Amino acid sequence: VNHPPDSSIQLLLSKYLLVGATYTNCRYWLDMKNLTDSNFVQAATTLSQCVKSVKLQSSNIIVESPHPEFLPAFQKFGFNTSFYVPTHLCDVTREELEVEISAIRNKLNKYPCDFISFEYKDYLIHSNYFPTQKKICWFTAFGASNKVKSQYLLYKILSDNSVNVLLVPFKAKYGNR
Fold first, then answer.
1. Cα dihedral 53→57→60→61 (10° resolution)
2. Model confidence over 125-160: pLDDT tens digits?
3. Strand order in the sheet with 80-84
4. So what's the pLDDT on residue 145?
5. Calpha distance 103→119 (Å, rounded)
6. Sequence-distant (≥ 6) Cβ neighbours of residue 136 within 8 angstroms
7. For the chain, which residues score pLDDT lower than 50?
8. Closest listed residue to residue 53, CA positions, set 15, 87, 105, 80
9. Hey, how many other C-beta atoms are within 10 angstroms of the C-beta on 60?
10. How far apart are the C-alpha atoms of 88 and 2, rounded to whole Å?
């Protein structure tokens, strides 16, 4: 369990989920960018077995991927799914945006997901083009972005009932998990 560029600390998903199983309201958002034709069935089956072994509810887990065509395998096991849509749409031209939105719509029509997921900077685009779609998004840090605009977007996100999850940075006192 790790998120590049952080190096692995050799934490197994099964051990991570076991600790979370002691908390009744624990929810997970699993980012699976590496799903392929050759591994998605095994990934869904293994995750389901792992979740059952620690007595978690599949419905408490969102499996996210930029490849929605692989997510029905997870839905069969009761997992919620999210289509990790292309990022930085706020930086593209109007024509490029229309092409991307059309591609997202086509994929969602063919492979319906419970959520779409994206970086907070693209919130206004997704709230405009997908107003009723349930959303999850992340805010990593203000960085070089305009803090006033970022705070405005965060306020809008927190006020939007279609946004079910907002991931924010957390500095642990010890370790990086």
1. 40
2. 999 999 999 999 999 776 666 788 888 999 999 999
3. 28-31, 61-65, 80-84, 115-119, 135-138, 163-167
4. 67
5. 18
6. 29, 62, 64, 82, 115, 116, 117, 163, 164, 165, 166, 167
7. none
8. 15
9. 17
10. 23
